[in-house]
Amino acid sequence: MELSPSFLSQLENGKTAPSLHVLDKICTFFSLHIATLFETEGNKGAYFHFKKESQIELEDENRSLRFLLPKSIHSFFEPLIVFLKPGARNQNFSLHQGIEFGYVIEGNIEVHIKDTDKILCKKGDSIYYPADSFHKLVNPTDKISQGIWINIYQEEENNFDFPHDK
User: Where in the sequence is the domain holding 50, given as residue range(s)?
Assistant: First the structure.
């Protein structure tokens, strides 16, 4: 999907609103997690209560994403609930910093990491993988699949080891 200069101009000037698909494409181009677009000043107290009505939910024809915390300049992780519609297969690959951890709450979610095998995660399964590899989530079933996904930003000196378990 190409984004034309006229569309980008309309977007910059607030004359059009981007779809979730377009936001994902722009974030992948800049190697950002989509939650970065919704940054807020973090709470510096001992806790932060983020009410459901304040949570941001984005939806397109394949999926719905609910951001469970606001993106803060002080946060090192971004949790969200992913709802994949039945047969949702045609998402683009995304790419951003950090690692991703996923846990399937309902249904099955295939994790496709470009140039590797697809990994089928069933209800109760968890997975983690480098987010700086092109990846996407697919629902191979005819029912809604749901999972909790957490993007974890890693420090430069940290080096995560990714064991492979089939």
Answer: 5-152
